[in-house]
Structures are given as C-alpha cells and as structure tokens.
C-alpha cells in the first residue's frame, strides 16, 4: 500500500502512474485487488436474494397472474369447442403466467431499480453483470412455476385435455421464461424512464395475451406475422402440440429451440443494457 | 492512496419539455484536485448541488469523468472503472436494491457479491450485525425498519467483505445517537486494525468537526478549501462569533445596537455576528450594560465553527446562510 511516495511527488497524473508502474523490488506500489465474485456463486446469491423478495412483495401478484389466466380460460370455454382451439387456449393461458411475471414484473423491477439508483449497489460490487441479470431473470422465471402449473392443470380439467405430457412444462417454463425474462430485463434497463418500462412491460404482456391465447386460425394474416415475432408464441406452440394424441416431437423440439435461442439473445442484450445503465 | 487530478464532469444542457423546464449545462465537478492519505477520514463538505455526489460517483467508477484522473492504491480508476469495486466499498444514498431483503440476507448477499464464499459471508455477516447492534433486527426486511435503522443495515452491508477504502455518502442520515456511535466505532476499529481509509460525504458540519481528519469544502464543483477542521478554522481565527437573542426585538434606539445591525445575520429575535475580538468585547459591553441589557434575552461568544469557515470562504453567494439549520 505504499503509493504515498509516488503521490507526494509533484507532476501530472500520467507521470505518477508511470512512476508507480516503474517502481519495483522492495516497494510494492500497486495494491492487490480484492476478490472478485465468480459468475455462478454470484448468480446463486442474486437468485436467492431475489427469491426471498417474493415472500415480501410478490405473492399477491402471483395470485393475480394465476387468476387472470384461469379467468380467461373460463371465458373462452363458451367460445371454443374443444380440439385444436382448446389446446391453444390452455397452452396460451399457461404461458401467459410466465409473460405476466417474467416480462411485465421484471421490466418494472429493473425500470424502478435503475431510476432509483439501486443499480449503484450492484455496480459497486465486483460481480459479473451477467450474474445480476441472470439471477434476477431466473428468480422471476421461478416465480411463475406454481401459477403456470395450476393454470395448466385447471385448463386440462376444464377442456378435458390429457394430463399425460404436462412434464413438458419442465422445459417450457425455463425456456419461455428465459426468453421473456431477458426481454423484460432489457426493456426495463433500456427504458429511459420507469413509467416507460412499466408501459412496455404491460404492452408485452398484452401482446402475449392476445396473440398467445386466441386460437391462431381465427386471426388475420398480419396479426399472425406479429404472433410469429413474439418469443412466447413458440412456448405456446410447443406446449399446445403435446396435448395431441401423437405429438410431433421434432416440431416441439424446434419450437423450444427457438425459445432457447431468443432467450440467449435477449439475456445477452439485457446484460449489455445493464452494463450501459450501471456506468453513466 | 487516493489521488484525484483535474477531475471535470459537465452535465449537458437539457431542453425543456412540457412540464419540465430547460436546465443549462452544469459543470458538476470543475478541475477537482484531492489527495486522500492512507488511514484518514477525509470529508467532502458542501451544500446540496456542490458536486459532492458527482465526485464520489467518479471515484467509485460509477461515472466517467470528461477529463482528469483518479488513482486509488495505484490503480487508474478512469481507465479501469471495474477495479474500483475490488478496492472500495460504497454506501450510496439509495437502498432500493436491498429494501425487500431481510437485514441478514442483505448483508450476506452483499458479502457474497464481494467474492466471499458462503461460510465466510455468514460469519462476517454475524460479526458485523453484532458489532452494530443489529442482531435483534436480523430477520426483519429493510423496508419495515425506520430510516435510521435501514441506513445502519445498509452500512452493515458495506462492511461485510472488508475493503481498504470505504466511501460513505451521508452514512448517518436519520440515525439516533446510539446508531451514530456504532457507525463511528466500527469505522475507528477498522482504521486501527487494518488502516482503512474513509471518504465521507456530508453536509452535517457538526459531525464533520468531530470525526474528520481533513476536509475539502466543495462549492459549485470546485474545492474552495482543503485542510484539517482546525486548520480551516484558523483561517478565520481572527474572528469571534457573537450571538445575541433579544427578548422581543432589538432596541434600535441604542446607537451601539443600531450600529451592529448592519453586520448581523438576523433570524427572528436572533442576531449572529462575526467580529474581531476587540469589536466583540465592545459589543458585549454595549449590550450587557445600560439600556440594551433590558431587551437582551441571551448572548453567546464562541470561536468560529466549520460553518463560519464555510461562510467566510464565500460558499454559495450570500443567500445560503450555512450548511445546517441553526
């Protein structure tokens, strides 16, 4: 820690820096840096902290998300009459829970954190940006598990669909969750004001609601293109296919791969957005 | 140990929109030079908007300066802002990242994000919470605590995972005297045992006088003075502070009192004056004898405080009376 000699000398900062780097031998001019948090332990710590926030702040919202989806299915029961449309409604409503929490709530969270200066806390800790973004995204995706399961089971019972392949949710929730949470985090961190982050999150969820829950065959062509652009669509499609008697697993895998790809891309964008937001 | 040279940051002008007036370009720090020595408690003092927080954000790598250099323990923070997090612990003014966590989890998580493994994060957490008297509140979320307790919990988080340099932005805001004492006790222990250096941002002059080794006074982005508190006070040592409190109003019919009025800062029945010692003696003699004494409620004579120094240095053009309310 003996930078003092270098400091007392007059001269420009550049000259000082040279002196510090030149200093060798007995004098250790540059102090050792403190430990850096590694990616996985830091991610685990952020994940755990975020999960614990759910107990304080998120449980009522999770109920809202679930009731909203169940309510939509009850409404749609009068409109659709079994078959492919029923599958689309149940799959769409289940994935809607993921969109509500991972996209909408996470966008709001990061928007508020950024606006209030809360990001400074993370930015002044030696933690990889990816750990903060992935930890929060993983926690929000985890919040969606109970609601999505309840919605899927209630939907299957309502529309008399088989419960056989519900295990596919073990892949759909994390992959659709990654895609939507990445999108939500990116929106929240990029929005210049927290109100805009909230608005974008709400719009994203509304899009997931309209484009995911309504059976695609009844939508106009333009809207169908929009539907193809929304990452949650592929989660809905993959899940919907598994209700069939003999699902085409190749297509299911392909749909899930799209989710995974969008997830990787959007989480990378979110990480970049976090770096940008943290150092202004 | 921390050398700042010619640090300059200008916030661009903002065009006015509906509801928000336009703001001109603001030079938040203007060629700031500061040297902080190892093991000292160095203060940044100044009114709101003086550039204290901007300066701290540039020191902690949160903001890139337009010009200038920051070197902490031999590391160039302008070129490698990410290194700041491995050298210093920062207590900012906002707690929103920790608000919904319990005190215990906030401290533990922060420790883990400073690179501690689970076991050492937990043992350091327990030690720090115990040291600050927070153990009883450990399982309460920060949100549910009072302002001072929440601040203390954030301070605890800043201490888990020791760093040689603590940057504290108004750490004791809202704290009761017990909590304040816990904070300064913890700082002193780290200073004695590890030679920890502290940069303290404050606008509490009284606290500044008692805890700081040296202080830089900032005004409009410039360092207008930098010395020990007593050294700064010597700059106005020729003067004495006289405070007069009148029962109802000043007896202006007494010529000596009327003459003093021009030099007094009036607030209600209270007059504050800075006078040369012999003038002060004459003034006190005038008000404590004769007709003026009947109207006098109380008076004090004191050597100058940091607040007087700040005023004498010409901080923020006249309309700001001082840094703390009297």
TrEMBL record, chain A:
Principal location: membrane
Entry membrane topology: Multi-pass membrane protein
UniProt keyword annotation of Membrane present: yes
Top-level taxonomic group: Bacteria
Localization per record: Membrane
Membrane in keyword set: yes
Family matches, as InterPro entries: ABC2_TM, Nod_factor_ABC_transporter
Name this protein carries in UniProt: Transporter
Pfam family, one: ABC2_membrane
GO cellular component: membrane
Keywords: Membrane, Transmembrane, Transmembrane helix
Lineage, highest ranks first: Bacteria, Bacillati, Actinomycetota, Actinomycetes, Kitasatosporales
Residue ranges of domain ABC-2 type transporter transmembrane in the record: 55-239
GO terms, molecular function: ABC-type transporter activity
Organism: Streptomyces fructofermentans
Spans through the membrane: 56-76, 88-110, 131-160, 166-189, 196-214, 249-274
């Amino acid at each position: 820690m003996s930078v003092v000699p270098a400091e007392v000398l007059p001269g420009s900062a550049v000259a000082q820096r040279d002196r510090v780097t030149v200093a060798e031998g007995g004098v250790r001019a540059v102090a050792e840096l403190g430990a850096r948090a590694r990616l996985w332990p830091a991610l685990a710590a952020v994940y755990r902290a975020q999960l614990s926030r759910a107990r304080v702040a998120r449980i009522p919202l999770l109920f809202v998300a679930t009731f909203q989806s169940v309510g939509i299915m009850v409404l749609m029961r009068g409109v659709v009459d079994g078959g492919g449309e029923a599958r689309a409604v149940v799959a769409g409503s289940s994935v809607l829970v993921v969109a509500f929490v991972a996209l909408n709530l996470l966008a709001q969270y990061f928007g508020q954190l950024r606006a209030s200066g809360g990001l400074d806390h993370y930015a002044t800790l030696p933690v990889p940006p990816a750990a903060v973004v992935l930890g929060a995204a993983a926690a929000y995706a985890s919040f969606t598990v109970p609601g999505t399961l309840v919605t899927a089971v209630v939907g299957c019972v309502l529309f008399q669909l088989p419960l056989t392949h519900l295990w596919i949710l073990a892949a759909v929730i994390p992959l659709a969750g990654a895609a939507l949470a990445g999108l939500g985090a990116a929106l929240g961190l990029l929005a210049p004001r927290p109100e805009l982050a909230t608005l974008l999150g709400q719009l994203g969820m509304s899009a997931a609601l309209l484009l995911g829950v309504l059976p695609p065959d009844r939508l106009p062509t333009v809207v169908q293109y929009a539907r193809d652009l929304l990452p949650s669509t592929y989660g809905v499609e993959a899940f919907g296919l598994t209700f069939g008697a003999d699902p085409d697993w190749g297509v299911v895998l392909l749909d899930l791969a799209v989710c995974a790809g969008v997830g990787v891309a959007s989480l990378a964008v979110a990480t970049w957005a976090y770096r940008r937001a943290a150092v202004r | 140990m921390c050398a700042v040279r010619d640090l300059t940051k200008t916030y661009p002008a903002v065009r006015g929109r509906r509801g928000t007036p336009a703001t001109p370009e603001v030079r938040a720090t203007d060629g700031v030079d500061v040297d902080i020595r190892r093991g000292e408690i160095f203060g940044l003092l100044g009114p709101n908007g003086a550039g204290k927080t901007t300066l701290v954000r540039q020191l902690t790598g949160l903001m890139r300066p337009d010009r200038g250099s920051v070197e902490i323990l031999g590391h160039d923070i302008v070129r490698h802002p990410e290194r700041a997090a491995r050298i210093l612990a920062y207590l900012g003014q906002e707690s929103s990242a920790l608000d919904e966590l319990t005190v215990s989890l906030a401290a533990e998580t922060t420790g883990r994000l400073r690179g501690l493994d689970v076991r050492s994060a937990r043992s350091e957490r327990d030690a720090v919470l115990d040291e600050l008297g927070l153990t009883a509140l450990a399982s309460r979320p920060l949100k549910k605590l009072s302002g001072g307790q929440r601040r203390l919990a954030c301070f605890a988080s800043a201490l888990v995972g020791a760093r040689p340099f603590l940057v504290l932005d108004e750490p004791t805001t809202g704290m009761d005297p017990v909590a304040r004492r816990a904070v300064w006790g913890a700082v002193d222990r780290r200073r004695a045992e590890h030679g920890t250096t502290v940069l303290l941002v404050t606008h509490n002059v009284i606290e500044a006088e008692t805890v700081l080794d040296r202080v830089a006074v900032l005004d409009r982005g410039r360092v207008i003075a930098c010395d020990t508190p007593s050294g700064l006070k010597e700059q106005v040592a020729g003067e004495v502070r006289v405070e007069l409190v009148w029962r109802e109003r000043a007896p202006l019919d007494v010529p000596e009192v009327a003459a003093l009025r021009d030099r007094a800062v009036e607030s209600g029945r209270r007059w504050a004056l800075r006078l040369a010692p012999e003038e002060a003696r004459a003034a006190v003699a005038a008000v404590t004898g004769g007709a003026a004494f009947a109207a006098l409620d109380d008076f004090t004579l004191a050597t100058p405080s940091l607040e007087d120094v700040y005023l004498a240095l010409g901080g923020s053009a006249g309309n700001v009376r001082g840094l703390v309310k009297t």
